[in-house]
Task: structure prediction
Amino acid sequence: MRDSSKYVIETEGLNFSFEKSRPIVQNLNLKVDEGSIFGFLGPNGAGKTTTIRLLLGLLTPSSGNVKLFETTLLQDRLKLFSQIGALVETPSLYLHLSGFDNLNITRKIRGLNRNRIDEVLEMVELKGTAKLLVKKYSLGMKQRLGLALALLSEPRLLILDEPVNGLDPNGIIDTRELLVRLNREYGITLFVSSHLLAEIERIATHVGIIKAGNMIFQGTIAELQNLQQHRSILQIDTNDNSRASQLIHDKYNTAFNNGIVEVSYQHKEQLALICQMLVGAGISIYKLQVQRGDLESIFLNMINN
Result:
């Protein structure tokens, strides 16, 4: 059982800009629990890739700190990065070599055991095509080979930037299932950057939403879904909607939408109470339905306001 108080990534007041007048990351306080799948969301240009480059030491922050495994990035980079695998944008591969040879080159550079190649090929389900030239790989296979390269050092943390970008539906599903398996079966913490909320929603335990370099939401998927419930609407259609609205309005604010009575949904007991009120007044109910606000609309509302 993981210690939920332990962060594998923590930033404190992280700031970065190429020009003083154009900040890209602003006062970012990021906290990623060990053992989680953290979805890092935001529109294109929000600062996601820049944040990842700051986490990996590829850029130096203007101010603020980065901690990995509760250790400041400046203290012992080699030790810290030996525990991290990363795939930023598209993987760099030797197309004229086989998948196995691509992995073997990196293995030799990093001084790793040869047996690890077979292990990572098994993990990403490429063992049967390991001898095939990479130029013959599909885009999804290349992405999985990139993940295999990131997994060679047996990392505790994987940092992935848009891992399903450009993939077809089957490739997206395969990658999604692989990421969940890496987390559940191997205990690897995943930090996944994306602009696709619907995809992140399927795999993430935690979410951070960034807009123009600022963190505008950070919490669990359950907390984000709680926002969804608060934005849900109860739709009511009866044989006398005008009278029904008057009755309900004494307790709940109502509105009309295409002749249908609408009330902000609060909880299931509210449905029972409204039903009792209407039936007790002799009103026939034709429709009583909760219209839930989807997470995609909540996300779009956050980044567009």
In short: The longest helix spans residues 169-186. DSSP finds eleven helices and 15 strands in the chain.
